Amino acid sequence: MNTIIEKISGDINSDQPVLQKAAQIICDGGLVAFPTETVYGLGGDAFDAQAAGRIYAAKGRPSDNPLIVHIANIGDLDTLSDKVPDMAYRLADMFWPGPLTMIIPKNSKVPSTVTGGLDTVAVRLPSHPAARRLIELSGTYIAAPSANLSGRPSPTKASHVIEDLFGRIDMIIDGGDIEIGLESTIVDLTGDVPVILRPGFVTQEALKKAVGNVLLDPALMTGVSGDVRPKAPGMKYRHYAPRAELIVIEGRPSAVSERLRSMAAEAVLQGRKVGVMVSEELSHGFDNAEVICLGRRNNEEEIAKHLFDALRQFDEMQVDIIFAEAFSQEGIGQAVMNRMLKAAGHRIIKV
Ligand code: AMP
Ligand code: MG
Question: How many angstroms does the Cα of residue 207 sit away from the middle of ligand 1?
Fold first, then answer.
């Protein structure tokens, strides 16, 4: 398939012709990768059951793993659901447009291919101006998961999308580097108390402050074990994973630093190509290892923004093993560590 790549500048007026072209592709049943504030999305018409099938095929994604429907106005909730919980309007007023996805009951207008056969639908109103304009211009809603091949880290740069999906979709809109770099927070509103199914930039603390009690899906930080199964189908798959084995070291910074150095040195001695993923504070003094610094330890936003790109860079460098520093799980750290531990298959060493 011929994939068109078009750059946009961020100025919504001069970007209009590109967005118009993308909207037309979506109306015609095609697929377009576009920037949002969280990660790049791979979009198709949310009311076209076949477009959803094309998204699953382009990503190599299991079709029981539902897509997020992107809307342009809060009122669009009522088009997708006949039973919008009051909580959804409250959260929408406070956090939309923005990186929060809500799970609500779906109505018959939403194709079951989009929801992976579930009777609920995931909905988000993004804040990225080009993403919103694209939805408006398409005159429909846009079903979009992240624009990566299934199993690979989510794309935070246009080059990541090109690497994974060039030749598999109709168009890629290059909007430069993504602002947040982690997928949206997913909150399930179908029960009495909201439950976070996937942590993200909108933190559990912020949600609690806004609406009171908010729980965390117990499967999130532990991985799938025994009866504990994540409620978001996507969270059960191996995800965000670099090709090399990733081991996370957790503890006081001085102890982590010491263990990282000894484990890296030992692996180098064994003739392995070693990657190290750390804060700026711990990034110095590694010999013969590929060191990627994610940012200063207390700058969670910077760390979040660089994580997926770092995992992709290690793939490119073809390292055999990666040692990573664990970060605090406060605030956005909860989302950062959720992604890192999933990428590590929950291999964590406490020192
Ligand atoms: P992605 O945007 O690629 O990260 O994928 C969307 C995420 O939303 C996946 O983890 C899905 O499992 C999750 N999701 C979408 N729809 C639902 C739903 N109705 N119930 C629970 N999780 C959902
Ligand atoms: Mg994804």
Answer: 19
